[in-house]
Amino acid sequence: GAASDTLFADRSETAFSPRVAAIYQINENASVYGAYTRSFRAPTLNELYRGFRVGNIVTHPNENLRAEYANTVEGGVGLMFFERRLSPRGSVFATTVSNPVVSVTLNTTPNLITRRRQNLGETRTRGIELDAEFAIRRDLRFSASYLSADSRVTEFPANPALIGNFLPQIPRKQMTFQLNYRPPTRFSFGVQSRISDAQWEDDLNTLRLRPYFTMDATAAYRVHRRIELFAASENIFNSRYDIGLTPVRTVAAPAFVRVGMRIEVGGK
Fold this sequence. Notes:
Blueprint: E1 19-27, E2 30-41, H1 45-49, E3 52-54, E4 57-60, E5 68-79, E6 86-98, E7 101-108, E8 113-119, E9 122-137, E10 140-155, E11 173-181, E12 187-196, E13 199-200, E14 208-209, E15 212-224, E16 227-234, E17 242-245, E18 249-251, E19 256-263
Parallel strand pairs: 4-8
Antiparallel strand pairs: 1-2, 2-5, 3-4, 5-6, 6-9, 7-8, 9-10, 10-11, 11-12, 12-15, 13-14, 15-16, 16-19, 17-18
């Protein structure tokens, strides 16, 4: 039960994070844009100093981690159709991350997987994103989006075997749908769903999280100007999709329903 202190050396880093963007309006229904961004992320206290264990996986911290740096280039087009009721948009992007912090597998046995936080060298993500919104009526809107991203390790001098592997917990394809009904009456309703491709849990690409589909719904009724009753259902179809492998499989929560009341106070 005795406590002990560990003193770490002071460190500092500086970062330059510019963003440059431009948009050109071709006409009232079409525009194109382009952007360049450089950003950074400092390692968290957990990544630097806190080790933990989940299932059969032990992850060690690394007090020598440096900040991540990302360079992103993107470009796209936005359109309007049917008197601006339909607005599709599309973009392509490429992001290169230097020194990304990743949990790297050091050792694997039947009973224990040991990992340590490390700066990985370099990763690259290339992809395309499409989304659209359609006003079916003034009170009824439908929107959808699609994301395709290829995220891989491109450099890692400490372990070249990882080059070409997919980054953990990044699916290659994702789709979402939303339907919102908000009439001028007191009732409103909404549905949203998500479809995700398979993804890897680990840097070695050996623990695979399966693809999944899930749907949520909400409904509300305004009893008074300041009082609203609502009901929400999450994971309507009780999809027990994967959220982790340690290597014991962990699945998402089952279908869940909640009801409540919102009361606005204050103001005029």
